[in-house]
Design a protein that fits this description.
The structure holds 2 protein chains of 2 kinds. Chain A starts with 27 loop residues before the first helix and ends in a 7-residue tail after the last helix. Chain A contains 26 helices and 2 strands. In chain A, strands 1-2 form a two-stranded antiparallel sheet. By secondary structure, chain A is mainly alpha-helical. By secondary structure, chain B is α+β, with helices and mostly antiparallel strands. Chain B has 2 domains: 224 residues, P-loop containing nucleotide triphosphate hydrolases (Rossmann fold); 119 residues, Nucleic acid-binding proteins (OB fold (Dihydrolipoamide Acetyltransferase, E2P), Beta Barrel). In chain B, strand 5 and strand 6 form a beta hairpin. In chain B, helix 3 crosses helix 4 and helix 4 packs parallel to helix 5. Chain B is globular and about 75 Å long. The chains are: A mainly alpha, B alpha+beta.
């Protein structure tokens, strides 16, 4: 999950928690957090990465130092994977940011219709895993597939889709919401006074645009960096579409390096290093840009609401249709494809049997004959994992986010910041492979903890994967909480706990709920770490679905996908409904909002 | 109408209070005794340490050293630090610090939640306060639906609701326009005194300080330079910093000074070397070249040219302020007088005679370093 820059209705610009630099001092809490993070992420990933040049360190080969595996990784299939990942990610980040900027401008700065719907659609798109998108597209476009059943000839597109084009469409759709939210936040802080000042001082439309654009340049650069990093790290498309289209991507070649026999951890480590090295620069650049862009300080209590450009009726319809088309391609097509794939019999069958409506796939999912191997147990397990991981990550993320924005300048904060920045750049597949390697080391199993091939290891992996992104997600709203609100509560007699309960929690409640839901749904649909770390006979839903799809039971697999999706969105609806029912009105009026 | 039982006002004593932020010394050994029930205003420029001092008293900041005693109880010392919620204080914040998710009524009721009163009494108390600060009609609104002045009234009511013996004010009027500032200043003075609490109020505005305070403390670079009544601060400033910060029309170096028996000096100034001006001497021990002549705006009198009294000057600007006119008068390249009041208007470029009231003139070392 990426670093989403988000705005809030809580007043004004971030305020320093403590005036002036404090003395660096030892902090027990900071040290404890750092130890946990070290065991959770740094140690497993670090030990795994060492194998790239020194396999003998962990008895994975005879060499203490070698460059052989670097040569191997850049040759043949794995080399092709690295090359493909690089150019696809570059192109996708460009496409996603261009589209997202246009969308954000239309939604936030014009009077097009259904603006809330488009913002909510971006959230749904954010929750949709790439392997589900791929599945929907495949069901729609395959020969004698859903489109064919609707009388559309899409054979010409099918071949194209199973190649770079399809991969780029799905990955662009996936990166779109990240770019959209970042650019939207930048655009919303851009009050009309900047445009007005340029126009009043004689600038035409073009010069005004050129003058104002640099103000949101940090947001655009951030969006490019995050889109690139997200695309490089994606495993869902690489594992499904990339594999079937014989278009290798780095995350899949890494996975196959350790899943083939004999496993080649050293080549996998080289690919992991390359993935991380390619992802760190844009993330670091984004961080630097965001820090420097504070001087722009466009968000203040005095910034007026942006003025919307008033389209005429025709332009308004055209613009709305354009946005609708993008949302349809990103969200509608996969959902429609998956729905049809799960309700229509003989899809993809060229025997002339004819297609017809059926509930048999859904019946099979819950049929006693396959119930032991059906969806119920995996989905229950995924929900349990989601519950534990989202709650655990939520608590840790809020603690880390508070440290991150505390601005006390101590070593602990600096290390946490660098660490979180680096961790966002570690793809899930690298983390997963790092875990199976690290937690299977005899030193660890004999002297530290023996959780190899167990559910706790999968849980830890999922927490480690979600934590950096979730922390940076929380950091924005946390930084916008004015310290004086807590201080006022303390001065007026509230204890620390009452201060948190009555002032901070209500203001953070929406971001806490959405952060929890985001991690919960992402955990249920997570594929990379689940595929690598699931214990024998305890498959999470995403792994079960993949095994059905891979074993030519695509109807059942698709029905499972739809049920999982429905369950995910059901939980979101239920949680938001409960939140609405049980929280006071004031909680819902203030703070971070999902629809800005 | 308000509660019959007023809080007992409390005294506050600061002893050698020091606060450092890394290398920066925000408070440098402040000693201060505040009598119970008094309204003390701490006056100083940005960075003088006044906010830090207030936050230390509130318990939001922990002093690096020194002792704070509230109502004879040590709340901060070498081995003591009482948490803010235990100090029985209330505070009005510069940015209001109203909780945006709570209505006006709930914001005001917040300090009462831990009180032992019955709910009906608490509600009654909130109703009284809403009436007293004139926002009863806004009780169910949220802070973002209020103007700046209304928000500050809520913050004031919340502080009064606490029924504590010490109320702290952190530049509460700085975000308001001039009209509202004047109106709220009067309300703060009235309601706080009615409440019977001791008040510590910080500001960088000397007119606000003089209007509100029983006693004013002037801070500079983390040190308390002078602590006295507003009248004494104005009439007997301790040094050049206090004089300048509490308002001068002009200053210039002196050529010569002769001490008189009554504490006054006769000084000659560069623009009128043969003329002697009388001024109150303050700390005039050093070399005469280090001394400056200062005159308050209230001590400058303007007259039409022609008479024998005073020195010649030229009006370079004039502004109407409702009661009369404020002039800027150039006496010499080294002496331009500002805010010179007269009920009569003197036009720009007009020649005038300028005379000085000795009781509003001072001669003292001109030091610009630490006060």
């Amino acid at each position: 999950m990426a670093d989403l820059t988000i705005s809030t209705t809580v007043a004004a610009a971030p305020v320093s928690r403590q005036r002036g630099p404090a003395k660096s001092r030892f902090s027990l809490g900071g040290t404890a957090i750092w130890i946990v993070l070290f065991l959770l992420i740094v140690a497993p990933v670090g030990c795994f990465l060492i194998l790239a040049v020194s396999p003998h360190v962990f008895q994975q080969g005879s060499q203490w130092f070698t460059l052989t595996f670097i040569h191997q990784a850049f040759e043949g299939y794995t080399g092709q994977g690295i090359f493909n990942s690089l150019w696809v990610s570059s192109l996708v980040s460009f496409l996603a940011v261009s589209t997202a900027t246009t969308l954000a401008w239309l939604v936030h700065r014009t009077n097009i219709g259904a603006r809330r719907l488009w913002s909510v659609s971006m959230w749904l798109l954010l929750l949709m895993p790439t392997w589900m998108m791929t599945l929907g597209w495949t069901d729609l476009l395959q020969p004698y597939g859903a489109a064919h059943a609707m009388g559309l000839n899409t054979n010409w597109l099918y071949g194209e889709f199973f190649g770079p084009l399809g991969i780029i469409i799905v990955l662009t759709s996936s990166a779109l919401p990240f770019a959209y939210f970042i650019v939207s936040a930048g655009m919303q802080g851009l009050g009309p006074e900047f445009e007005d000042a340029a126009r009043i001082h004689g600038a035409g439309r073009t010069r005004t645009f050129a003058t104002v654009l640099p103000i949101i340049a940090p947001a655009l650069l951030s969006a490019i960096a995050i889109s690139f990093a997200e695309t490089m790290s994606d495993f869902g498309v690489a594992f499904t579409l990339g594999y079937h289209a014989h278009f290798p991507l780095a995350t899949y070649t890494l996975f196959s390096a350790i899943s083939n026999f004999p496993a080649n951890f050293s080549v996998a480590a080289v690919i992991a290093v390359v993935l991380i090295l390619l992802t760190i620069p844009p993330i670091a650049l984004q961080s630097v840009v965001m820090r420097r862009s504070k001087s722009y300080a466009v968000l203040s209590g005095r910034t007026r609401a942006p003025r919307r450009r008033e389209f005429g009726r025709r332009s308004r319809y055209l613009a709305s249709a354009g946005v609708g088309l993008v949302v349809f391609v990103g969200l509608g097509v996969p959902i429609i494809g998956a729905l049809i794939g799960s309700f229509v019999q003989n899809l993809g069958d060229d025997s002339g049997a004819g297609v017809h409506f059926t509930l048999s796939y859904y019946a099979q999912v819950i049929h006693p004959s396959i119930v032991d191997n059906g969806l119920a147990s995996p989905l229950l397990l995924s929900n349990q994992l989601g519950l534990v991981v989202a709650s655990g990550t939520g608590v840790m993320a809020i603690i880390l986010a508070r440290r991150l924005v505390a601005n006390h300048g101590g070593w602990s904060q600096r290390i946490t910041d660098i660490f979180l920045l680096g961790s966002v750049a570690v793809p899930g597949v690298v983390l997963g492979v790092g875990y199976i390697f690290f937690y299977n080391l005899s030193f660890i199993t004999h002297h530290v903890v023996d959780i190899y091939k167990t559910l706790p290891l999968l849980m830890l992996g999922l927490v480690a994967s979600a934590l950096p992104g979730q922390t940076r997600f929380m950091a924005g709203p946390v930084s916008q909480l004015q310290p004086s609100l807590s201080e006022a509560a303390r001065v007026h007699g509230a204890t620390r706990f009452r201060t948190w309960r009555t002032t901070n929690m209500p203001l953070m409640s929406r971001v806490l709920v959405w952060g929890w839901l985001l991690t919960f749904t992402k955990t249920i649909s997570e594929l990379a770490i689940s595929q690598i770390l699931y214990p024998p006979s305890q498959e999470p839903a995403s792994v079960t679905i993949q095994s059905y799809l891979a074993n030519f039971q695509s109807g059942t697999g698709t029905a499972m996908t739809v049920l999982t999706l429905v369950e995910m969105f059901g939980v979101i609806g239920l949680a938001l409904g409960i939140y609405r029912l049980v929280t006071p009105e004031g909680w819902r009026r203030t703070g971070w909002s999902v629809v800005n | 109408m308000h509660d019959s039982h007023l809080p007992e006002p409390v005294g506050v004593v600061l002893e050698q209070l020091r606060k450092e932020f890394g290398e920066k010394v925000a408070l440098d050994g402040v000693d201060l005794t505040i009598e119970p029930g008094s309204f003390v205003v701490l006056l100083g420029p940005s960075g003088s340490g006044k906010t830090t001092l207030l936050r230390c008293v509130a318990g939001i900041e922990r002093p690096s050293s020194g002792v704070i005693t509230i109502n004879d109880v040590c709340v901060a010392g070498p081995r003591t630090f009482v948490q803010p919620e235990k100090r029985k204080t209330a505070m009005v914040f510069q940015d209001y610090a109203l909780w945006p998710h709570l209505t006006v009524r709930k914001n005001i009721a917040f300090p009462l939640a831990s009180s032992s009163r019955l709910k009906e009494r608490r509600d009654q108390r909130v109703d009284d306060l809403l009436e007293r600060v004139g926002i009863a009609h806004l009780a169910s609104r949220y802070p973002n639906e209020l103007s700046g002045g209304e928000q500050q009234r809520v913050a004031l009511a919340r502080a009064l609701a606490a029924d504590v013996g010490l109320i702290l004010f952190d530049e509460p009027l700085s975000n308001l326009d001039a009209d509202r500032r004047e109106q709220l200043r009067i309300e703060i003075a009235t309601l706080t005194r009615e409440a019977g609490a001791t008040a510590i109020y910080i500001t960088h505005d000397q007119s606000e300080a003089f209007a509100l305070a029983d006693r004013v403390g002037v801070l500079n670079h983390g040190s308390l330079v002078q602590f006295d009544t507003p009248e004494n601060i104005y009439r007997h400033p301790k040094n050049a910093f206090v004089t300048r910060f509490t308002g001068v029309a002009g200053e210039c170096p002196i050529l010569a000074a002769k001490a008189m028996d009554d504490g006054y000096f006769d000084v000659s100034l560069p623009f009128a070397p043969l003329h002697f001006f009388r001024a109150l001497g303050v700390d005039c021990h050093g070399d005469v070249s280090s001394l400056h002549f200062f005159v308050r705006a209230s001590g400058v009198l303007l007259n039409a040219p022609g008479g024998d009294e005073g020195v010649c000057g030229e009006v370079i600007d004039v502004a109407f302020n409702g009661r009369g006119y404020e002039h800027v008068v150039k006496v010499d390249d080294r002496m331009v007088l500002t805010k010179v009041f007269s009920v009569r208007r003197f036009e720009r470029n007009a020649k005038v005679k300028v005379s000085f009231d000795p009781s509003a003139c001072f001669v003292m070392p001109a030091q610009r370093s630490k006060g």
